Amino acid sequence: MKTIIGIRREDKNIWERRVPITPIHAKEIIQNNPIEILVQPSKIRIFTDSDYMREGIRVEEDLSPCSIIFAIKEIPLTFFKEGKAYFFFSHTIKGQPHNMPMLRKMVDLKCTLVDYEKIVNEKGQRVLFFGKQAGQAGMIDTLWAYAQRLLWEKQDNPFSKIKQTFQYRSLAEAEEVIKEVGNEIRTQGLPPSLTPFVCGFSGYGNVSQGAQEVFNLLPVEEILPSDLISLSRRKEYSSNKVYKVVFKEEHMVKTRSKEECFELQDYYKNPHKYEPIFEMYLPYLNILVNCIYWDERYPRFVTKRFLKSMWERNHSPRLKVIGDLSCDINGSIECTLKATEPDHPVFVYDPIKDEIKDGVEGRGIVIMAVDNLPAELPLESSVFFSTALKPLIPKIARANFSGSFSDLNLPEEIKRAVILFRGEFTPDYRYMENYIKNL
Predict the structure, then answer these.
(1) What is the per-residue pLDDT for 232?
(2) pLDDT score recorded for residue 254
(3) CA atoms within 13 A on the CB side of 63
(4) What is the pLDDT of residues 97-113, one digit of tens each?
(5) What's the confidence (pLDDT) of residue 190?
(6) Burial of 316 per CB tally in 10 Å (0-12, 13-18, 19+)
(7) Digit-coded pLDDT (tens) for 333-362
(8) Contacts of 126 (CB under 8 A, 6+ apart)
(9) Closest among 384, 399, 385, 390 to 30, alpha carbons compared
(10) How far apart are the first and last CA of the chain?
(11) DSSP for residue 423
């Protein structure tokens, strides 16, 4: 007997064109397993209805025959059907208020919820993610924002050749343009007003690696944080290259006690014992790309107070743009006051007035804060994600979602990601019951 699984079309916004399973991978799955796949039609998806039909996949509006349904983003309340299993990024584990009605609906309908974000291997590393693509798209958008700010300041610059990520047909097309910019820097150099050109990266995970991959298409020399301050004072820096500095936690905080030294696991467990020191580097950066994980337990690394003092000392500081790829509102970058969309990706934060204004014009610092960056690279994101998801599909299809959770025959890395099982919170997620008590 075949298991019928469904792929829901994405409709959260016009930018969401990704798919969890590509047509060619869907074809391989149904050819090699007792599985049938139904795909909802979509007019905006990166892979068209015809792409799926060409591979022998049925395109159907009605997914009610499917016992298991895959999506990318959050699902509307009206879509859920009683007793079915849903796999998607639910954004519920922190009690995100806007998604609690969705979670309540799934409980009421006795649904099973598996969150991709919580599928981790034995080392605790995520199996399904878009971090690399978020970094790639975010770096392109940040370089574009930097160029636009300089043009508003009437400074010609080679970065002005770069377009916004969503305007390119592919990542490869964008990379070719950035290589051209790199060649111009290598041969003609940067204007003296921009040198030494330094881009700082806070964090070193998947997002940061994706961003650095794009930045490394330029003529890059990497320096240590300890060398950053002295770089601008030395005469041997080059205008024919750009400089990269990667900040780890040990560069961003110090222990409050002089008797103790920084220890990474201790910082994760006891962040209250540490205080931020990152802001001392900011005056020496042209661009900051923020890729670090943050929640409310940790200190802020760029505060409104510091930015105000920096602008009071220097009306035109070196730091022009912060690409906040982490995009935590009022988070590690305190002046990230809202998330933005790909077509309007930036705003200017005025540290003197504590106000924001869309675009790149006006006093202050440009903030790039698109909160769904992988959607700007829908092809690369979909292929990357589908490649990781494909080997898990047969294991998921074989699982018995009608029995008890203890007998659910899923691989452990997937079973750990089951938040709801037939409408009940699983042991690791019972804390979430408090989030929906009053709904």
Answers:
(1) 75
(2) 95
(3) 24
(4) 999 999 999 999 999 99
(5) 97
(6) exposed
(7) 999 999 999 999 999 999 999 999 999 999
(8) 117, 119, 120
(9) 390
(10) 39
(11) T
For each of the domains in the chain, give its residue range(s) and CATH number, in order of start.
3-119+379-436 (3.40.50.720), 131-376 (3.40.50.720)
Alpha helix ranges (H) inside 116-170: 131-152
**Which among 31, 26, 38, 33 has a CA at the least distance from the CA of 65?**
38
Helices (H), 232-323: 249-252, 264-269, 304-313
How do beta strands 68-70 and 3-7 pair?
parallel
CA gap 61, 163 in Å, rounded:
36
**Residue 196, preceding bond cis, omega within 30 degrees?**
yes
- Three-class SS of residue 63? coil
Question: Residue 332 has which token pair?
Answer: 């590690």
Q: C-alpha distances in angstroms, 61 versus 9, 65, 66, 109, 388?
A: 9, 11, 12, 21, 26
What Cα–Cα distance (Å) separates residue 232 from each residue in 65, 195, 286, 392? Answer: 64, 8, 12, 51
CB 17 within 8 A of CB 378: yes
Q: What is the largest CA-CA distance in the chain?
A: 73
Q: Which residue has the tokens 């469904």?
A: 6
Rg of the chain over all Cα atoms, to the nearest angstrom: 24
Question: Which parts of 381-436 are beta strand (E)?
Answer: 418-421, 424-425
Which residues in 176-284 belong to E strands, given as ranges?
198-202, 220-222, 242-247, 253-255, 274-276
CA–CA separation, 136 and 175 (whole Å): 10
Contact 274, 254 (CB under 8 A): yes
CB crowding 325-361: b at 16 or more within 10 Å, else e: bbbbeebbbbbbbeebebeebbbbbbbeeeebeeebe
Q: Which long-range contacts (CB under 8 A, 24 or more apart) does 356-365 make?
A: 360/145, 360/148, 360/149, 360/152, 361/152, 363/311, 363/315, 364/311, 365/307, 365/319, 365/320, 365/321, 365/322, 365/335
What pLDDT was estimated at residue 297? 92
Nearest to 379 by CA among 207, 178, 169: 169
Name the residue among 102, 392, 48, 116 with its Cα closest to residue 39: 48
Q: How far is CA 260 from CA 29, 178, 215, 269, in A?
A: 54, 44, 36, 15
CA 138 to chain CA centroid, Å, is: 8
CB atoms within 10 A of CB 228: 21
- Weakly modelled stretches of the chain, pLDDT under 70: none
